[in-house]
């Protein structure tokens, strides 16, 4: 293996990344010509993953409150300082859960670093809700008006609860006060500050992740923002931009899926309802399904349904599938039993032998939130650090020949579907042929597919405290959910000297 030297040129300014993890910011900065010299994080798993992907970087493991900027940088001049503070406490996904004053104060560490190392440029990324960052107050019981403690109990009459034992919530009367003070302090340090909300899909990334990006320049040069290159498919042509990159580009269609019927643990009604909604909207009523051959081990290729079908071979179980994917929001987490299938089950043949004169309509289900479905040709929704919120859903479509045909009559399997009223419509027209749904399958989104949505790579192994092992799926999803799609920092750093 080629050795990468960690020796720095003595006359070069360095790049520092705070809250480093999977390496999206680092890879993007390096693609823009800014090699990352120092990466900091308190999480040993995040540091181990970053070290595996970036062995040339000096890694500092420790609480950002305790890390000395001058010691971490060796007193070297800093060109770019990138920071993506923990966003969980600001995110709307947290809902009304108690807040952490310590986590919410993490952005102030950027000011401390700026004051000590005086970087030329500061770049930051976070959820858009950070603009509402403000003071916290004690949560109070609705009935008594008394303070609620961390253990969930209510303070006794006249009891004084120390702040560190209180459940803290946002003070709605002072929303945004801390954020405005933070921006004001960065400017008082001599910087020119600008921020924008950017959708990653507008820059060719296959995810609709929308985040707050801020740039502060202390070198007196103007701030340059990247111009969007992509737009939603229905507006791309009129705006003279490229269409959004679809989620289907990062899905591994060879991974098997399991039928949603006859499971040991049935799916929840809301899950079935949203599956039915997406099935109707993006498969049964979709005039242009997404066609993809699954022949043997060849590289997958896509075909527009307005063009003739590729050759249908005479293999024992056929070669083609129709893929018309969609995304549906749910508010629960699917078990590990979602992944995998028996090779004797219909959709399992997706990985090796195809299907017998069947068309497979594969889909995605976002197992969180309240939104409905979305087309597979649109980018992936935001991948959260919790992971395990996105599943692939597939519908088997069997060509209908009628009773008495040598092929299986599609009306037989439909009895299982009609037991659920929400799946009442089961026919679909593709060209001049009629098809009927014979099965619906689902699996969770694989962690490597999630990483591909951010154009990142997961390390094969990590070294955590001397233990060399692969990342678990939970660890991988958490790293992906906290990562920055690498193309965004690459665009932002495009004009860095």
From TrEMBL:
Catalytic activity: a 2'-deoxycytidine in DNA + S-adenosyl-L-methionine = a 5-methyl-2'-deoxycytidine in DNA + S-adenosyl-L-homocysteine + H(+)
Cited SUPFAM superfamilies: S-adenosyl-L-methionine-dependent methyltransferases
PROSITE patterns: PROKAR_LIPOPROTEIN
The protein's name in its UniProt record: DNA (cytosine-5-)-methyltransferase
Record's keyword annotation contains S-adenosyl-L-methionine: yes
Keyword Transferase: yes
BP GO annotations: DNA restriction-modification system; methylation; negative regulation of gene expression via chromosomal CpG island methylation
EC number annotated for this UniProt entry: 2.1.1.37
Keywords tagged on the record: Methyltransferase, Restriction system, S-adenosyl-L-methionine, Transferase
GO MF entry, a single one: DNA binding
Native organism taxonomy: Bacteria, Pseudomonadati, Pseudomonadota, Alphaproteobacteria, Acetobacterales
InterPro entries (UniProt xref): C5-Methyltransferase, C5_MeTfrase, SAM-dependent_MTases_sf
Domain of life: Bacteria
EC class name: transferase
